[in-house]
Structures are given as structure tokens and as C-alpha cells.
Amino acid sequence: MFETARQLGRIPVVVVRGEPALAQTAWLKRLLAHPSMLGSVLLTTGEARGAELSFNRVESFKLARLTSAEGCLCCGMNSGLGDALRSLFLRVLSKRVEPIDRVVIDAVGLNIEQIALTLKHAPFLGQRYLYQATLTVVGQYVAMSPQACPEPVLLFDFDEKSILKPV
Fold it and tell me: pLDDT 10s per residue in the chain (167 long)?
């Protein structure tokens, strides 16, 4: 269902959000346990999320302090998400960490529009990462929308073979 960095030529970014947070955590744990997600890295603002999700490639970052009225993360690109993505790419490039197929962002406490702006307005990041989809956990189902579209387009259930199957 999700293309890899080799297929796209850039590292795809998938954002997972949902209410309540427990449902998001449960679904994210199932997603990350899927064999096709083995080459993924999870970025999160939660320090203990790696143990909570039973996933070994978790990196935490601090939220940037917002400096504009619109709350754009680009204004704080020297801290937070921008630094985490930049650092991850440079470590992969220098072979200090294994290659990655995709980045999954655990969007607890994040505004997805801010993530899209961060990738769009930071040339270094925009040339290396591609915002692929937003997954919104709704109970046991997931609504998927392309990029940072606020309205979900398709509703999916978890499928052990292809990760997501249409409902």
C-alpha cells in the first residue's frame, strides 16, 4: 500500500493521527508490527513511545516553539521536526544508520498542516522527503487522505497481507 524510498526516489512520510490517543496507539502498534514496515522509522514527540509501541526504530524530537501567528513549524526549523528529519537523512547518507523505506510521524499533539508546510518550505527536506498520506485513526478503522488534506478520502481496515483494505 505504501511505496518505499526506492520506488519514489524520495523518502515517503506517512502521518498517523487519531482520537482517542489509545486507539491511535493500538493501531500504530499493529501497523509498525507488519513485516512491510520493517524499514520504517517512527518520529514522535513522546520519549517513551518506542517501548510503548514495541518498535525499535523510534526517534523522538522536541516540538519547535512557534514564532508566528499561524503557528508554522518552518519558523522553528532549527529545532523539532525539521532537525529530526535532517539528522535522520544525514545519518542514513553517512551509513551511520540502516537505510530507511519511509518515515512514520506519530502526530500526537501536532497539526498536520504544519508538517506539510515544514516539508514544503524547507528546500533540503522537500528535495529528500515526500508527504505521502495522512492516516486518521477512527476507532478500529483508518481514514486515509493524500498529504495534509483535512477531509479523509478512503476508509480502511487493517489487513494482515496488504496493511490496509478498503471498508
Answer: 577 888 888 999 999 888 777 888 888 888 888 888 889 999 988 777 767 887 889 888 887 655 555 555 444 444 588 889 999 999 999 999 999 999 999 887 777 777 777 787 888 998 999 988 888 888 777 877 776 565 656 677 766 666 666 65
Q: Quick one: fold of 5-166?
A: Rossmann fold (3.40.50)
Cα–Cα distance for residue pair 158/167, rounded to 1 Å: 10
Record the cell numbers describing residue 110, joined without a space: 501536532
- DSSP letter for 49, please: H
The span from the CA of 104 to the CA of 124, in Å, is 19
> CB neighbours of 87 closer than 8 A, spacing ≥ 6?
none
Domain boundaries, the chain: 5-166
Q: What is the pTM of this model?
A: 0.83
